[in-house]
Amino acid sequence: DAAETTKLFKMPESRTPETELLCGLSSLASGDGEKLKAFAADKFSAPIAMPEADYLERAAASLWTELARAVWLIGRVALGRDVSEQPDEVILAVIRRLELSRLQIPNGEQPLIVRPRLAGPYHFARLLRHVSGVLLASMIVRVSAPSGVEPGRWSDFVREIAARRPFLWRNHVSAVSSGFLNQGHSFVLTFPTGAGKTTVTELRIAAELLRGRKVVFLAPTRALVDQVSRDLSERLIPIADSVVRGQLLEDYGEDAAGRVFVQTPEQCLAYLSFDAEAHKDLGLVVVDEAHQLSGEPPAADGSTRLPGRRAVDAMWTLLSLLQRSPDADVVFISAMVRNGKALTDWLGAVTGRPASVLELPWKPTRQVRGVIVYEASEIAELNKGLATRKRRSRASKPGKADKADIQATPVGLFCHTQVWATYSSFAKLPVLSGPVPLEVNAYWKPTANRNVVGGRLLGAMAQAKMRPIVFSQQIGWTASIAKVGANFLAAANYPEVDITDEERTLLEAAAVELGDPLHVEGICEGRIGVHHGLLLVPERAAVESAFRRSNGLLALVATPTVAQGINLPAEAVLIAGDDRYTNELDEGAMQPLAVHELLNAAGRAGRAGHYAHGLVINLPGKVLTVEEKNKRYIVPDLEHMMSLFGLPDQCLDVVDPITQVLDRIQSSSVDADVCEYVVRRAAGIPNDQLVRILGAAFGNAVATDRVGRAAAQAELLREHGAALDLAQQEEIDEPDLDRWKDFASQIGVSPFVIARIAAVVPPAETVTQWAFEGLRAFAIENVTQHLFDLVNPMSAGLSQIMPRAAKTQGKSTAYTESVDEWEARWRAAVPEVVQAWIGGEAVARIGQRLHTRRGATGRVNAVHLGRRFALHSTPSIAHGASVVVRIVETLRADAMSAVLRLQLPLISGCIREGFDDPDKLLLFWHLRRVGAQFPRVVVHSKFASIQSELPAWSTATDLDQRRRHIRTALGDD
């Protein structure tokens, strides 16, 4: 509130004690270290009182000057700077001067007290004395050095932090006092969304680095990995040599010299599988958005559901890290977790050290939440009119003319409490000045028309200068909503927003990568931002920058990727649909959003330092009505809204995905892909180690018979692993399985697949002749041959780019193509598309290739196919290639030339980033590291301009020297 109030200050141009005091207060209240540094200069410069002022005005000016000096001293203390006297002493001196200046006049038994007319300075001083005590207690420079940290180094670090953010919030102070920064203690942090979980976690990371320990930070998405990497790199500069982004380090030929490793669970798991010594000396494992560890909650009918591979990978990654670094502490971060106590019991049992939950409900902002409804009488009239049209039409489904002019005026039903309850009071308020068009379904009933209505609401919010974020559940809908909102604003004569030179450079880089400026997404009609999971990195950076600026984009339409921790503050959030379409054959059609997903999105409304209050509006997927009776609002679907807004942020019980899969295997054998995946993961792990991993699983760790239970589960996995091996035994002659079981287990692949690839590795005399191109071609060929064994078609996006053929009849859908037939179609496509990718072809052209291969009959965005391949498929194909390269290296390392051995770590990175030459990858790495925006396509042409300046690879003794060759050719050395 204070930070927002200071934005309303209108400072007089004249420099007086009062304006100096206001300036100091504004700097303190903003929480902005830069503003505070500007105010708290090395010497306090007292304003000069006007000479014509009378004695009382001069006295007031003197007092205001002293109080301004006290605020100046508070600012210096907050920044960790030296002061000659304490601010409390100055404030107390002002109070005493005023109290001593009073005059007592005899008046019988009750003497009269006369004070000078200086009530303002007196009351301000009394208030400031109280506030200064609170501020001093919350200053980051006052945080004592944690255990195991040298006090001098800690003091230097917190002074650096104070220069940006001098104060901690009350929940941060509480966390620190609970021992959050101390070694040997794990925590589950369930502060509400926007309550600063990341801030206090950064302090814990800094403490670990100052102890000389390493940290792994697991983030659920690549976008969040990028953001966390950037933020930590900036904030840990005083103590950290480097923050390693979430890539396989060997892809760039870089040493793992970083001390903070920011990775997705999948990236971390791949890194662990390729380096037996990786992450063996960790001090801390941070799991951001820790609810992503969870398996699936029960279905609506109470039946159990299998988790996806992402949840299994996340949990398996955590367990693997704790096996390799048993001394590591763990910090879970999530606003959504409800069973934090159960998680701390688990962490305590697994680590053998204390674990605590911090679930303080305080947050620095407040929200009001509402839902879009329509007057029951208005919807009744629409239903009556549609019934008349149906009788006249005599058709089973409405036509275009039947759907025309179906309009209603939306209103907002708002609750007076943030968490809705049946006893809460509600208010019905208008949200738009006129009606909006509704859709009509096949049953002649009005439907929500969420995209058009959402766009209209977006426009109205933007007109009110609220700068909302609108969440849509499908990528294709984001542009539709943004278009409606942008047209609404254009009609109201809102000009296009100017973009900065940096943002323009980013968008131009995206245009080159895509092949045409027309394919660039992110900014709609110059007014509204669009953010989704298929944006290229420069597009995403441009739109985030343009929305963060106070003079930037007027609104943002986004998919839920923004809700997963991306720091984009907004005053208002509109959830355009509380359901989403799923193409799972056993579910189908529209399914309701999980409550924690909706509340996670709602948490973006109101962010400290930006907006002290937030507005959340849910636009349901169906038309809800409201009717006022007996001074009460009757909402037939109120129960639906209570199920969403009737819970606090902490609404999700984390369940163990691994034991969910094990229970399914126990009851139904290996009847799903994720079941086989877990069996393969376990196959090559020594039995005692496997028992330890399973015993540490969340579903087992606190069980009384944990060891026996884990041993039985290990035996179950062994039995099913043997059965899978037996089923494949006939397909290969005398496979050398024992040699490959450990490796196959590390990557979750059948050892028979590894053995088959090993069986076709050329003899030594052939490998001796290989250059980089020969090994790369062999890797791509074998990834293609064993495509679905090495690349998961679901997580790699293959199922969305070129899906398995299916036919829908009524509400049922059946596949018309076997998995083998589907894989064969992909095998035919991969060599061509990968070659185009590494050859520098534009993303749009690659999308056209995929579109032709797909043979789509419906409206499919070809550019989006290319985007999905570039962002989601290439990392998985590159990982598959690294598996093949590892096999070749194991068998033929001695036969390889010295140059090829040097280039070996770069093959996977070349395929993932889109280069056919290792020098191009190193060039790309260099250009990106120095901050330039060079798209893949440009790097190919840039390389051509320096290729003749590069010496032969044989002159390089290591990759560092080859990088120096490239810098020299560029003229950067």
Q: Can you characterise this structure?
A:
A hairpin with a 5-residue loop joins strand 15 and strand 16 (about 445). The chain has 38 helices and 28 strands. It is of the alpha/beta class. The longest helix has about 30 residues, at about 860-890. The two termini are about 50 Å apart. Mean pLDDT is about 85; it is low at about 245-255 and about 585-590. The protein is globular, with a radius of gyration of 32 Å.
Task: Give the topology, please.
Elements: H1 2-6, H2 17-30, H3 33-39, H4 55-78, H5 87-100, E1 103-105, E2 112-114, H6 119-138, H7 151-162, H8 170-177, E3 186-189, H9 197-210, E4 214-218, H10 222-235, E5 243-244, E6 260-263, H11 265-274, E7 282-287, H12 309-324, E8 329-333, H13 340-351, E9 355-358, E10 366-375, H14 376-393, E11 407-408, E12 410-415, E13 426-430, E14 436-437, E15 439-440, E16 446-447, H15 450-463, E17 469-472, H16 475-491, H17 501-514, E18 523-524, E19 528-531, H18 537-548, E20 555-558, E21 572-576, E22 579-581, E23 590-592, H19 595-602, E24 613-619, E25 625-629, E26 632-634, H20 638-645, H21 657-668, H22 673-683, H23 687-695, H24 706-729, H25 737-747, H26 751-759, H27 764-768, H28 772-785, H29 787-790, H30 798-801, E27 806-809, E28 812-815, H31 819-838, H32 843-854, H33 862-892, H34 898-903, H35 907-913, H36 918-929, H37 936-946, H38 959-970
Parallel strand pairs: 3-8, 3-9, 4-6, 4-7, 5-6, 7-8, 10-24, 10-25, 17-20, 17-21, 19-20, 21-24
Antiparallel strand pairs: 1-2, 10-12, 11-14, 12-13, 15-16, 18-19, 22-23, 25-26, 27-28
Helix pairs in contact: 2-3, 2-4, 4-5, 4-6, 5-6, 11-12, 15-16, 17-18, 22-24, 22-25, 23-24, 25-26, 28-31, 28-33, 31-32, 32-33, 33-35, 36-37, 36-38
